[in-house]
Specification:
By secondary structure, this protein is of the alpha+beta class. The chain is 21% helix and 33% strand.
Length: 132
């Protein structure tokens, strides 16, 4: 069953272990608008979406999908998102998928989450925001 998030996650509570992670978090912080709050931050595994920040106004990503492999800070208003999906590998049940997909027009972004719970939380938060 989909779950609506109950509380916000602070940037200060996110464990940061590497320089590039600090740079990613700094880029997100420095690009927030007045009154915009971060709801959740997810660290991606793999090369597509490195960091996903869900804010009160938009999705912010440090990613390599939209600009042909170049590292980009990409902002997407929720109103531009056309789908959010669970992505399962061949022969994998959908209910244990750890990857979510976000479709914006003809672009597709993949966030490979740490575990099933994180994938469900990210999927549900985006879905909930799209529907409300």
């Amino acid at each position: 069953m989909a779950q609506v998030p109950l509380s916000s996650a602070s940037l200060d509570t996110l464990a940061v272990s590497a320089h590039d992670e600090r740079a990613d978090l700094s880029a997100v912080r420095n690009n927030l608008f007045d009154g915009e709050a971060i709801d959740r931050i997810y660290r991606g595994r793999g090369s597509d979406v490195q960091l996903l920040a869900l804010t009160s106004q938009r999705i912010m990503m440090i990613e390599r999908t939209a600009w042909e492999g170049q590292l980009a800070l990409t902002s997407i208003p929720y109103g531009r998102v056309t789908a959010v999906s669970y992505l399962a590998e061949d022969n994998q049940p959908i209910d244990v998928a750890t990857t979510i997909g976000i479709r914006v027009a003809s672009l597709s972004f993949k966030l490979k989450c740490v575990d099933v719970d994180q994938a469900q939380q990210a999927h549900d938060l985006i879905s909930w925001t799209l529907l409300h």
